[in-house]
Amino acid sequence: xxxxxxxxxxxxxxxxxxxxxxxxxxxxxxxxxxxxxxxxxxxxxxxxxxxxxxxxxxxxxxxxxxxxxxxxxxxxxxxxxxxxxxxxxxxxxxxxxxxxxxxxxxxxxxxxxxxxxxxxxxxxxxxxxxxxxxxxxxxxxxxxxxxxxxxxxxxxxxxxxxxxxxxxxxxxxxxxxxxxxxxxxxxxxxxxxxxxxxxxxxxxxxxxxxxxxxxxxxxxxxxxxxxxxxxxxxxxxxxxxxxxxxxxxxxxxxxxxxxxxxxxxxxxxxxxxxxxxxxxxxxxxxxxxxxxxxxxxxxxxxxxxxxxxxxxxxxxxxxxxxxxxxxxxxxxxxxxxxxxxxxxxxxxxxxxxxxxxxxxxxxxxxxxxxxxxxxxxxxxxxxxxxxxxxxxxxxxxxxxxxxxxxxxxxxxxxxxxxxxxxxxxxx
Length: 427
Known about the structure:
20 helices, D-Maltodextrin-Binding Protein, domain 2, 49% helix
């Protein structure tokens, strides 16, 4: 039987803490050094982290880096849990999406209301961001940037030589893939890592069906939604796209997939815009060698993930340093510098799109349209809690790997899973 993550966290809290430290027992301010746990380990991600670390040092606080490799933060999540169990939680950790609420529910996260109020975060940040970083009317996370997950990268020069336009619809994409295959070119760089398969699949759900259906499936987990024909069509399309891939069952880390695309082993790649930063690290530059578009069928929809840092309370000895980092993260200058390096876009409503490249400008402008055009990513913990996310991804990944498994059977498996998850919530 599936166990809800809140029950697991509650057990962890009881093991680690017989009672939580009270603010009245705050220790004296310790040496101004912050351990920062994150999963930014690719070359461009490290560059973005270094920018933050250097600016923090200018504030008189040292950044002790604890980078844990692993796409989608899977490895970092395991390290964080083990360190909490050992009563050795880092002062700062990258926690995103629904996980923020789960940790805050246990009282582990420092409230950043003073920083948020002093720096007018309520008016500076997009409404979706404000909601994400709050728990019970308290700010418990500092937002770094917004990633667009429904990004299609394509080889600009190759498309031009074959007289191909960027595909805007599913039929366009099918036709482009067929012409590329006829020319002896693999259409798609893609890994079969579970989270990467889930990323591709939720793009297909968003395409043609829109944000409402995406939320109905992955956030509300409606059993009837996955039994609809449009969900079956998305599964059939996923299986077709498998035939476009270089090695369909090859579980490559995402930086390797980016390198395949950069090495011109495939003409297209569907991935979050962090890939743009890695491509720009080489001579494969935006608007020269490659271009960005939205996943065909998603138009101006924005499938998003948001990078956030939360501060662990521990003994309250690092509050001043933690608040300095939180304040720094929210500033216009830091937002501009960090997101330009990371490939993401600013969480601030007053950012200047004219200072962004074409990919970033489209991402920021589309996100600014508001919640009706936004869809929270399943693969990147925006849509649901971690245990539900993992269970959903497992079913989708099994369908992707096993060609003998029919779309209809997969629909039934997911509907049964959603009914179980809904029963656990009611309990």
